[in-house]
Amino acid sequence: MLRIVMILMLVAGLGQTATAQQARQMLNGMRAEQGLGAVKPSARLEQAAMAHAMDMSRNGFFAHKGSDGSNVMKRVRRTGYGPCVVAENIGKGQPSLTAIMGAWAASPSHRKNMLNQRVTEYGLVKAPGNYWVMVLGKPGCRG
């Protein structure tokens, strides 16, 4: 249990490290090249990303569908985030932030999620076994 708590602290702390700054710069750099606005980190989207990354890591699978049958929308709502728009990128095996961001940038569907003009926030985590999850979203649309 202590090992899991320590891993969660290390990975969840991504929001306060140089790596988190690099992720934000890479993502927002891609968006700026396309004339899109910057996205900001969201603790709730990070929490949803962490839940899925740890689920995949603990249970040894790789899919957008969680071991409990959940999809990204359900996982995001569990955190109390009321999404208007939500998208999810997953990756497995890439050893570094640069590698995963490069892989996602080279994949049309993942790139489309990162360049979605409607998203305003994101959460990005890495779990043991090099499971990566990025959740992008925009809170509660009106009208």
Explain the overall architecture.
The chain is α+β, with helices and mostly antiparallel strands and about 140 residues long. The protein is about 50% helix and about 20% strand. The chain contains 6 helices and 4 strands; from the N terminus they run ααβααβααββ. A 4-stranded mixed β-sheet has the order 1-3-4-2, sandwiched between helices. Strand 3 and strand 4 form a beta hairpin. Helix 2 packs parallel to helix 5 and helix 3 packs across helix 4. The model is unreliable at about 1-15 (pLDDT under 50).
- What does the main sheet amount to? 4 strands, mixed
Count, helices: 6
Globally, the shape reads globular
Distance between the termini: 45 Å
Residue-averaged pLDDT: 88
Structural class category: alpha+beta
Helix proportion: 40-55%
Q: Order of strands across the widest beta sheet?
A: 1-3-4-2
Give the number of DSSP strands.
Answer: 4
Q: Taking Cα atoms only, what radius of gyration do you get, to the nearest Å?
A: 14 Å
The SSE order reads HHEHHEHHEE
Strand content: 15-25%
Query: What are the low-pLDDT stretches, counting only 5+ consecutive residues below 50?
Result: 1-17
Task: Give a brief outline of the structure.
The protein has 143 residues and is of the alpha+beta class. Helices cover 48% and strands 20% of the residues.
What is the topological layout?
Layout: H1 2-12, H2 18-33, E1 40-41, H3 43-59, H4 72-78, E2 83-92, H5 97-106, H6 108-114, E3 121-127, E4 131-139
Parallel strand pairs: 1-3
Antiparallel strand pairs: 2-4, 3-4
Helix pairs in contact: 2-5, 3-4
